[in-house]
Amino acid sequence: MDGTDPQKPGDEAPPGTPGSGENLCRRCGGSGKIGAETCPDCSGTGKVTTGVGGG
Ligand SMILES: [Zn+2]
């Protein structure tokens, strides 16, 4: 089981969770960085896994 993304602090659901999907990280706006720092929420990927259908 390699090649899977580790869960990131900004993720709301574990990878592979039914009903979840990747979305742009709201903290960094998808850039993966906040200023010169790597975004802690998405670990620099610019994307986080969030549940779908929730508020
Ligand atoms: Zn981010």
From TrEMBL:
Top-level taxon: Bacteria
SUPFAM superfamilies listed in its UniProt record: DnaJ/Hsp40 cysteine-rich domain
InterPro entries: HSP_DnaJ_Cys-rich_dom_sf (IPR036410)
Segments of this protein annotated with the region Disordered: 1-55
Gene3D superfamilies for the chain: 6.20.20.10
Comp. bias (Low complexity): 44-55
Protein name, as recorded: Molecular chaperone DnaJ
